[in-house]
Every structure is written in C-alpha cells, then in structure tokens.
Predict the structure of Tetratricopeptide repeat protein.
Amino acid sequence: MEYFIKIHFSNFQTTLSSLNISYYNRNSRTLMAILLTFSFSYFSAQSNSDKEIAALYKYETQPTPTQRLKIGFKALRIAKDADNDDEIKRSLVTISSAYYELGKHSEAFRYAKMMDSETGSDRFLSKIYIARVKCFLYEDLGMVDKAKQEINSAFQQASKLENKNTDDYYELMGLLWRDKSVFYTDIDSILKYDQKNLDEFLKFKKTYKGSKNLSMPYNNVGYDYLQKEDFPRALEHYKKAEYYALKVNDEFNYAFVCQSYGEYYQSIGKTELALEYYKKCLKIAQKFNDYKLALAATDYIRQIYLREGDKENRIKYDQLFTELNTKINSNNKKEINDLVTIIEKEKDQELQNSNSSKYLIIGGLVLIALLITLYAFYQYRKGKNDYQKFNNIIQDLESKSALELKNEEKPDTVEKTVVASSISDEKESELVKKLNNFEKKEQFLSSDLSLSSLASTFNTNVNYLSKIIKTHRNHNFSSYTNELRINYITEKLRTNPEYLNYKIAYLSEECGFSSYSSFVSIFKQQTGLTPSKFIEYLSK
C-alpha cells in the first residue's frame, strides 16, 4: 500500500531547479509529500489476493513514482480480470498517488474519483488513503477547506475501524496526525502534531525498519525543537532517533539522523562535528544512490568550507555537487520519458475499452473542468483579498517610515523590563542599545548571520541574547531577523522603483536570505502575498 506523509523536509519536485536543496535541508514549509511503500502486515495476512498481484508490491528497493505507476496499472488489469474488489481499490490508490507525486494533478484526481466510485470490500483501507491523496491535491490548489474536509473524513473513517490494537492502526493514526501539520506554519502547531505522530508510533509492539521505524518521528520532533532553539531537547530527540535507526541497522534512516546532527552542531557553532555528520550522511546517501540527499549533504559541506576559506575542499565538494546535479537531471529526463511511454500505452489501451469506460473518461474530464472552474473562481476571490492585503502593507510601511523620521532625533532609550534575574540592568541596557544599533546599521542583511555570531559580536552568550530578543522584540532569533529582512525589502520595493525590475533571486540575496525558497515562503508568511504578487501590485 502506498502511504503519504507530510514532512518538514520541505520535499523535492521532479526537477532539480524546483528541488533547490530544500527537501533535505527542511527550511521551508512548501506542500510536498514523500511516498513510502509497504504493506499492512495485519490486513495482508487476511488477503486472498492473487499471488501475481501480491508479488508486484514486493520489492527490495524503493521504486520511483513512474515505477509505482507501472505496478499500479499492471495490478489493476490483473485485479479487474479476477474481479478482485480489494486489489482494484488498492491499485487505484497506487496510481492516483503516483500521479500526484509526478505532478500530474488532473490524472491523480481522475483515478481518485474512480476510487471513490468503487463499492464493496475495503480490506486495504483504500477509502482512507485516497482521502489523504485528495487532501494533498486540494492543498496544492489552495482549496484549504476542501483539503481539511478530506483529512477529517480520513479521521472519521479510522475511528470506525473495529480493530484499533494493531501496529498498522497506530501507524495510520500517526500519519493522519502528521498530515494535520500541513495546515500550519507556526512551529508550535507543527510540533504539536509531530508529537502526536510520535506518540502513536511509540505504541508499536515491534521494532521496524524503514517508514515504521521510530527514528523518523523522533527526528521530526527534534527538528522542531531545533527551530525553537531548544537545543537540549533537539539533541535528546536526535539521540533517540539515532538509537532506533541503529537498533535495526536501518542505514537509510540513520542518514537523515546524521543530517540532523550536522544541522544541530552547525547551529551551536561546532563546525568540525557538523562536517563529520554531514559526511556520514553523504556516504550513506551515495551507497543507496540517493542523489538528492547526497546533493543536500554536499551543499552543507561546501558552504562550510566556503565560510572557512578552505579553497581546496570547497573546490572538491563544488565538483561533487555538479556531478550529483548532473545525475539528478539525467534521472529526471529518464523519469519523464518513462512517464510519457506509460501514458501513451494506457491511452492505447483505453481506445480498446467498452463504451462504459469511455463514459468514465468523459466524467473524469468533466470533473477536471469543474475543478479548474472552481479554482479560477477561487483565484478571483483570492486576488481581491490579496490586493486588500497589499494596501494594508503599504499603509503600514508608510506609517513606520513616518514614525522613524519622527524618532530619528530622539536618543536611544531602553524600556525597563524584567528579563531574567541572571542579567543585570546594566547588561540588559547595553544589549538593547547594541540591538538598536544592529538594526540601524542593517547588519541583519548578512546571510552568514546566526545567533551565535551575533552573540559573539555583542560580547555576550546566546542565552542572554535570546532572552533580550524575546523580551524586547517579542520574537525568537529566526523570526526576528526574518521580520527585519522582509520589512527592509518591502520598503526598498516601495520607495525605489529600480527594485521592481530585479529578479526574485536577487531580492532574496539582497535582504540576507541564502535560500530562494525560504525567502518566498517567509515573505508570504509575513505579508500574506508572494514577492511576485507584491511587485505586480506595486507596478500598477
């Protein structure tokens, strides 16, 4: 059965340009999905499916989306010949989910609709899993209410299952809680549902490899704590993730743990340890021919060597980065060619089907047309709301600009606030003044800026600085610098027409973001608009 999980590993599209290393470095909250393929142990034990169908779903290595599509179509033909309702449903879910991962949303909707029309036995819980597929499809189209309806439907169906004391049920509930997190951008909500995911997996009676290994949910929760700059809890969860991966010799999950350790040690300024774990991650990724994970690890390594001025190693890993890039592009081209072949073959097969099959295709096309119409109406309504958001942003910028001019001649003052008993009033005043100076000099535009580097500049420690920022700016370090950068670039766009002609990538670098995808995501999160839409309205 093919299961979807939504993860912070802001996940990859079908080309490297859309990957932007973000799938494996987990910096954005773009709506992406990983397909994990395995079979329900409990439900499979009850199955009387044809041996030929069962053999199709057994493979040693994770198949590509195109390979899953081939498996789904072959299984569907066998299941129809055998009049096997359960396998027909499972095949339709496999096909729909594979099309989704390939970015073929209309085809994914088509097979999801076919799945919905199926009746009878549902031993593989296909109705629940197709609801998850539709949730992601609607989410991608911006139809959030419809997406929430689908995931709520999946929860309702799961609650009606009779046997709730199995590892497969706990896994299903864990994945559903994980899906819930896609509707949130704040780290506290994400952590809440990641923890629920972990809590369900902790109910397992056995220890598993792969997607059911506890390493994955522990790793996700650890990452959430890292984003909250709760370093002790992040490390605690990463150690548990490492333990469960190594317990069953699950090297693939351990590769992600190594990546997480690298991020953790880099965050606390221990560069040598960070390099050590990034290289472990790279080695395992290369062993499994996971070029995208290898590419992400390589990018981390070369960026560290670049900052340290180690030219020899930077060149070495730059070359490896280029080689991996080439391999990914080559694989993508092959994937596209295979997909075209499959689609053409299925079209030829459809020409030989009965009139009832033709009516089914027409119904699918009508559904797609209806969805496109609904989506167009949604975009029209959204456009009106976006323009109102734009006007509010401009008004705020003008108000801030006027207020700043009014306060320019006033001396810096520090409002008396109780931060913590360990920070003296004199030290607090000194740090707030340095923070004001940091903002005035626009030092937040440096892409190399980190909490530890700023603390060093201020001649203090990260704990003191974090408390000062939280108390006097009501933010953690990441959200504080992100807000400064977005405010800076929106003001530049408003007051300097030349900036309207610059590419988004340049604007990203100009305001201090090292990742294009992170800039776009955070810009929209803060303003409610994408950078391109904001520029479009300014240009009118």
